[in-house]
Amino acid sequence: MNRFRLFVLSVCLLFSGQLFALRCGHLLVEPGDYREDVYDKCGEPDTIQSHYERRANLNRADNSIFNNNMNNQIPNNRFNYGQAYYQEVEVLVEEWRYDFGSSRLRKLLRFENGKLKEIVDLGRRR
């Protein structure tokens, strides 16, 4: 019995990538797809909302900078060892909503800078 459970678990993990995908007709849309590809596969969304979000990008300097001979170098002059370089970036966020009818769940697709990041189930229409 334990071998059977292990087999079922391994099969579920093998096909779990499709759990986070959206089927449009016979085509599959997954996180990582580009906006244009999703539009080609699923067509016009019911609604589109877009806005910009400011995000922090934090880089830390360390002493692991190597030259071409893979010898350790002193960190470059931009900042000293242990300091952080803080930068804010703007990300274009688009949320597309699809309603495929009463027989299927409504979906929200979240794009960041033109790339699909998340697919959310919104439930059925009331």
Question: What's the arrangement of secondary structure elements?
Answer:
Elements: H1 2-14, E1 22-24, E2 27-29, H2 35-42, E3 47-60, E4 84-98, E5 106-112, E6 115-123
Antiparallel strand pairs: 1-2, 3-4, 4-5, 5-6
Task: Report on the architecture of this protein.
The structure is a single chain. The longest helix has 13 residues, at 2-14. The protein has 126 residues and is an alpha+beta fold. The protein has two helices and six strands. The chain has one domain (13-123). Strand 5 and strand 6 (115-123) form a beta hairpin. It starts with a helix and ends with a strand. It has helices at residues 2-14, 35-42; strands at 22-24, 27-29, 47-60, 84-98, 106-112, 115-123.
List keywords for this structure.
126 residues; 6 strands
Brief summary:
This protein has 126 residues and is α+β, with helices and mostly antiparallel strands. It is 17% helix and 40% strand. It has helices at residues 2-14, 35-42; strands at 22-24, 27-29, 47-60, 84-98, 106-112, 115-123.
